[in-house]
Amino acid sequence: MDWRGLLCLALFAWGWEARAAEQSDPVSSVMWDYYHQRLLDSAAFTFDKRVQVLVPPFAEDARQVPIQIDARSLGARVKRLLVWAELNPIAQVVDFQPGEQVLPFLALRIRVEQATPIRAAVLTEDGLWHVGSARVDAAGGGCTAPSVVRAEAGWEERFGQVLGRRFRLEDSDRLRLQVAHPMDNGLVGGIPEFFIEQAELRDASGQRLASLELFPSVSENPTLSFELREAQGAELWLRDNNGNEFQAAF
Amino acid sequence: MRWMILCLALLAGSAQAELTYQLEPRQIAEDVWLVEGSTDNFGRDNGGFILNTGFIVTEYGVLVIDSGPSKRFGEALRAAIARVTDKPPILLILTHHHPDHALGNQAFSDVPIAALEGTRRLLAEQGEAMAENMYRLVGDWMRGTEVRLPTQTLEAGELDIGERRLRLLALSGHSGADLAIFDERSGVLFAGDLLFHQRALTTPGTPGLDVWLEDLARLQALPWQQIVPGHGPITRDAAPFVQMRDYLGWLDQVMRSGAERGAEMNELIRTPIPERFATISLSRYELIRSVSHLYPRYEHSVLQRIDQ
Ligand SMILES: [Zn+2]
To answer: In this structure, what CATH number is given to the domain that contains residue B51?
Structure first.
């Protein structure tokens, strides 16, 4: 074999190895490396189908796109769950830290500006990020569309009201709620950012069950669903970036 | 090689220039004609010709029902009418404001365009955005299409054109303002999009499925001989009513029971479609859309104030 043959072989082997080491991204996003570095600090990760990311195939209403994350089939203790929409002007959606009593499950609605991959990165106790992926198609404009809430008569009176209910499921209790809040993202009509940025789920004695950081890619009048392992009393505390606090009890 | 690419480009260019709607009016009763579209979704292959339009030839001229999805369609419709009668169009009636029914209006700017007051308002509010969306969905077929608002307001009641008496029903279940037109002489009922047949119904502007069901009852009670749904095949029997009622009931039940057990939107859009709806095109697609349009109302009805 001459030197060209050897070079060929070497290149082939190198390419093979590189491919094996580099996991293939299920949604082949050009932005993955960027977010892996920026949000996960380039830490060890695996694309993992057990982190289920449910989205509709297309956004019928780009201002209210339902996403649902379920990582319970990992069967491991989850420390953190990050969600982001890779091609959004405001990519980050939530940073969720469920305690022992709270399942690694979350459902909410977000705004998307264009078709985008949606990621959920779940950190297990062994320090590995398990990354679930999905893609939602969209005509777009959800982040820059004028507020529906602000156009409604009397929205100021409803501001901060929480609608909610507890639902008994097979192995858990689901808490569903909706908060009346415009969740201004600072991208529309010169209205500055005004959004709920922090939430805590607490037990009846005030102990923290889970904490949640929200970003203004979350839709206006945000809807949130959590699941508790057991039927226990729960309270929700919320605070927006102007310091308004809201409280609700399930 | 280069000449081949050039050839292909030329071919593509000429294909592009030849976007023509093949409209073949079919006589369904004396002086009553139907132009039947497919039950597909909007696409670049059909130019948005997915609806049924029709026309009635009277002694004074032609009454046209819906102008179609684009300027080009409206023009093709006029040409098709001229192939079967030498009477000119004298009136265009819009069943509702949706883009596939009302964006061909430009081709009828020389005759009165009549619609319900609500249709005019909704077209004024949503027309631009809907036209933009149509450009995105069907492309070049839309070239030159602009929103034209109705010039006359219709109300429920009787409309006489010479010897011909039409009964107009002002309803709202599908789009918020839906006009159904019943031709007394032929017994043909132009139901607009209050009736879909073998094609999943769409819900972006419905005031509620209960309202829609009430509208269906009123329509079905008319002494019709033949039904022209807004989308899908025409019939001489009540099949579209039966299918609509079944489908609306199912959709309502999916969301009602979903809300009561605390289901998420993403769970509902994956609901199995019952076998009996297997012949209805686009049911999964429209279920996803309907859940987005309507589920928030169902959710609201089961949630309570829990803030402290
Ligand atoms: Zn319609």
So the answer is: 3.60.15.10
